[in-house]
Specification:
The complex is a heterodimer. Chain A is mostly helical. Chain A is built from 14 helices and no strands. Chain A has 2 domains: 38 residues, no CATH class; 209 residues, MetI-like (MetI-like fold). By secondary structure, chain B is mainly α. Chain B has 13 helices and no strands. In chain B, helix 8 runs antiparallel to helix 9 and helix 12 packs antiparallel against helix 13. The chains are: A mainly alpha, B mainly alpha. Chains A and B meet through helix 1, helix 3, helix 4, helix 5 and helix 10 of A and helix 1, helix 3, helix 4, helix 5 and helix 7 of B.
């Protein structure tokens, strides 16, 4: 998949249009940066010479338990990612290497979850977790997502492209089923694991509705829900504070994205082509 | 021998995922359908079978109809707009412009940000008088708009955010597809004397059809799934102008605690998603040109 050769020419109408659109697209973020780094009186008055301050970030950090929210999100995303990797790998391995009567039908059933996501069933899933006594726990936020149809589908497509000769060679050397999986399939699918991982991290870092429904304490609430509760209280009063808090909460993902931009974009492409 | 070994290994490997999928996808689908035929249990009064009563209530419920119509308007505007913009962005980035990495990054950045967070930033744009939009419109004598507070503009305001957030995401898929188109095809068309616009319409666009379908399906699911900005900006108001189906389900289920009626509403959402799935597998897959 070699990028097409491009002759870089002068600035023409196409380039100008592309840049204008880019500027328009990044404008909300630029505004947020402006408001967050300047004193509140400049939030609605644009002045390039306005004094720069970190005070808004300090106030936001002290106004809500953001450190705790970050920790909660981190634990949640780690839990989901680790379980998805294991569960989806095992399931994909079963579909590719141990087909049995009816496993094709089961695979079609798995694909239903691509369409009907856990959010659509939030009332019933809430009751299930309430019956299990798991409301307001990190596990409850993660459970409906641990078996991902998308992950199973993606890993299955990848495993199918791995030559069976490699699997047979490993068997001849005396490797058992688990060793074949860990030494042949998983290493060869590494780029797909990275791709899936980045997509899953950004999905669950940003997820809001389900965590909102199942959490009700500072100890479990992820950053998205925490930010929303904070902003609802402060809304329309202090834009500098709200934008500072917003930037704080997106900073880890945004910084990671800016550093690993190429990998992010390629990962989203890989996960999308399938 | 081989088959029975496969069956044992296969089912053991599938077991953990199957248990979770059963508990949080299939079982809730079935229970939701059954629950929609029962009354909501209240206090010591248990749920009793009431047949299609919830659905009759629904037919007479103006908020339900409003949310359904809003959701359709929302889907039918955000999807073509974000797909069209995504295609334009991909073509621009692919056209060998200067600063293409930076441009691509600018388009894609909204995708990695949480909807609730960007909604907070956009809130400022829409603020009456002080907001950026009003400040820009004031010199033309068009200030004083309450974009989120008036029922004519509130849904449009949410649509704008969604398009802004999703276009860059869909651009990625078009970029990937554009890079897979063989330059020989384009050159062949050019040798035949095709103008650039003809090459685009007759060669590029048909080859992008599978991508367009994939993106469109994703966009439809998104239009029914993502209501985070409704929470952050309007809570369905003013006067239900931004009520979307999933938000209404949330409200009925968790604010009014009418779980029976919420189940019936969920059945409608599931039916809509099932219709889309059937369209994808039955109709669209056959119509789209695959290489």
């Amino acid at each position: 998949m070699k990028a097409a050769e491009h002759r870089v020419t002068g600035i023409d109408a196409t380039t100008l249009g592309a840049w204008l659109l880019a500027l328009l697209w990044i404008l909300p973020l630029l505004y947020a940066l402006f408001a967050a780094f300047h004193p509140p009186e400049y939030a609605t008055r644009f002045d390039l010479l306005a004094p720069i301050t970190l005070d808004n970030f300090r106030r936001a950090w002290n106004a809500a338990p953001f450190a705790r929210y970050f920790f909660n999100t981190f634990v949640l995303v780690t839990l989901i990612l680790a379980c998805q990797f294991v569960l989806c790998t095992l399931a994909a391995y079963a579909f590719v290497c141990f087909p049995f009567r009816g496993s094709e039908v089961i695979f079609m059933l798995v694909l239903i979850q691509l369409m009907i996501m856990p959010e659509a069933l939030l009332i019933e899933n809430y009751r299930t977790l309430s019956r299990l006594g798991l409301l307001d726990t990190t596990l409850a936020m993660g459970l409906p997502y641990l078996a991902s149809a998308f992950g199973i589908f993606l890993f299955r497509q990848t495993f199918k492209t791995i030559p069976r000769e490699l699997e047979e060679a490993a068997h001849l050397e005396g490797a058992n089923a688990l060793q074949v999986l860990l030494r042949v399939f998983v290493p060869l699918a590494k780029p797909i694991y990275v791709a899936y991982g980045l997509v899953a991290v950004s999905y669950h870092w940003n997820n809001f509705l389900w965590p909102l429904v199942v959490t009700n304490s500072v100890e479990t609430r992820p950053i998205t829900v925490g930010l929303q509760i904070f902003a609802t209280v402060e809304q329309g009063i202090d834009w500098s504070l709200v934008t500072a808090a917003t930037l704080l909460s997106v900073a880890p993902l945004l910084v990671a994205f800016l550093i690993f931009q190429r990998q992010f974009v390629q990962s989203f492409m890989r996960a999308g082509i399938r | 021998m081989k088959t029975s070994r496969n069956a044992i290994y296969g089912s053991l490997l599938l077991l953990p995922a199957a248990v979770l999928l059963w508990t949080f996808t299939y079982q809730p689908i079935l229970v939701t359908i059954v629950d929609s035929l029962y009354s909501t249990p209240r206090g010591r009064r248990p749920a009793r079978f009431i047949g299609l009563d919830h659905y009759e209530t629904m037919m007479a419920d103006p908020v339900f109809w409003k949310s359904l119509v809003n959701n359709l308007i929302y889907a039918l505007t955000t999807i073509p707009l974000s797909i069209g913009l995504a295609l334009a962005m991909a073509l621009l980035v692919n056209a060998g412009i200067r600063g293409r990495a930076l441009t691509r990054m600018a388009y894609f950045t909204p995708t990695v940000l949480p909807m609730v967070a960007v909604a907070n930033i956009w809130m400022f744009f829409y603020t009456p008088d002080y907001g950026l939009l009003d400040q820009m419109l004031r010199p033309f004598g068009l200030g004083g708009n309450n974009w989120l507070g008036s029922s004519e503009t509130a849904l449009g305001a949410l649509i704008a955010i969604t398009v802004w957030k999703e276009a860059g995401f869909f651009m990625i898929f078009y970029l990937a597809a554009l890079q897979q188109i063989s330059p020989a095809l384009i050159e062949a068309a050019q040798l035949e004397g095709a103008a650039p616009s003809q090459v685009f319409r007759r060669v590029t666009l048909p080859l992008l059809m599978p991508t367009t379908l994939f993106v469109a399906i994703n966009a439809v699911i998104g239009a029914f799934r993502l209501v985070d900005h409704v929470f952050a900006m309007t809570k369905g108001g003013p006067d239900n102008a931004t009520m979307l189906l999933l938000y209404y389900i949330y409200q009925v289920g968790f604010s009014f605690w009418d779980t029976g009626y919420a189940a019936a509403l969920t059945v409608i959402l599931l039916a809509a998603l099932a219709l889309i799935a059937m369209f994808q597998f039955g109709y669209a897959d056959r119509r789209v040109h695959y290489r």
